[in-house]
Design goal:
globular; mainly alpha
């Protein structure tokens, strides 16, 4: 019986080249994966070394690391970035950022007396509520012997898992908690204060009644209570939550934003009946973003019309 040659290799060099490229890709991917693993190991060793240098600086005292570390992880990004936005709104500088203003003409300049009044409420929430709650949580962990080991940094994989859990719980919890705050029986006494700013500024993020403030921080903290993360993970989470809140209330929509657009939450302050979530996933599911999508479609159509009109005039 005569053996027939393989037809695949008779079609020319194409199949041979494809097989060769596949082989190279497999080998290269394994090399790349090995290099990435080596990079993460080396980075982890370097970070662990730096952390061990910092650890004695804090006195190796878990009280300072937990309570005051968390305070700084919230206060520094909140007031650091928030103050920059206040200066931008008050002085209107730099001029180049005014084009990113979501509601042009509002808070330009911002009413300084209103900013001071808002800052007082924010500081009361931060120091009369958050600070005691951090102490309570710290002593609860000491009593129940659930304080994590601070000396050894978490792996990248563990931090990633922690953040995924935090984000999912936070997204779901905040959406339904926010909708609850808009219930007719709760809105006037609980949430209306936050909506005094129809065109919000950055520090309005934590401008609220004490009841609303407590309700809002519950979803943010359920994830950490479940996962019991390393203190560095907790610092990072609190810093990101505050940066996200500052961005969503800033009144600006920068094209380089790493999170979802601030347009949605700004629209929520304008209308008070849509866009309750952070990522709009649950808003889309429940249909509470319909008015926002109509608003954005009209806005884009108007912008397109202005561009066309300008172009015709220039001809």
């Amino acid at each position: 019986m005569e053996l027939k040659p393989l037809r695949g290799w008779q079609t020319g060099p194409f199949h041979f080249a494809s097989a060769l490229l596949l082989l190279v890709a497999v080998v290269y991917s394994r090399v790349l994966l090995t290099q990435l693993q080596q990079f993460w190991i080396a980075s982890g060793i370097a970070l662990q070394s730096k952390w061990e240098e910092f650890f004695p600086f804090a006195g190796e005292d878990d009280y300072y690391l937990y309570v005051w570390g968390c305070v700084l992880s919230m206060q520094i990004p909140f007031w650091g970035v928030g103050s920059i936005f206040i200066l931008m709104d008050y002085y209107g500088w730099p001029k180049c950022v005014s084009k990113y203003k979501i509601q042009p003409g509002t808070n330009q300049p911002v009413d300084l007396s209103k900013v001071i009044q808002t800052a007082k409420v924010v500081l009361m929430n931060q120091w009369l509520l958050t600070f005691p709650l951090l102490h309570a949580n710290y002593y609860l962990k000491k009593i129940t012997n659930t304080m994590p080991n601070f000396l050894e940094l978490p792996t990248f994989g563990r931090m990633l898992i922690d953040f995924v859990v935090f984000l999912i719980i936070d997204e779901i919890g905040l959406y339904y908690m926010h909708r609850l705050q808009h219930h007719p029986k709760l809105y006037a006494s609980v949430h209306k204060k936050h909506h005094e700013w129809h065109a919000p500024i950055a520090i309005v993020f934590t401008y609220s009644t004490p009841i609303e403030y407590i309700m809002t921080i519950i979803p943010v903290n359920i994830g950490p209570m479940i996962m019991n993360p390393h203190i560095v993970t907790l610092w990072t989470w609190y810093a990101l939550v505050h940066l996200r809140g500052i961005k969503n209330h800033s009144g600006y929509d920068f094209p380089w934003s790493l999170w979802t657009s601030a347009h949605a939450h700004d629209f929520h302050h304008m209308t008070s009946n849509s866009c309750f979530g952070k990522s709009l996933v649950l808003d889309r599911l429940h249909g509470t973003d319909k008015a926002f999508r109509v608003h954005m479609a009209r806005k884009k159509a108007l912008e397109h019309q202005v561009v066309q009109t300008t172009f015709r005039k220039s001809e």
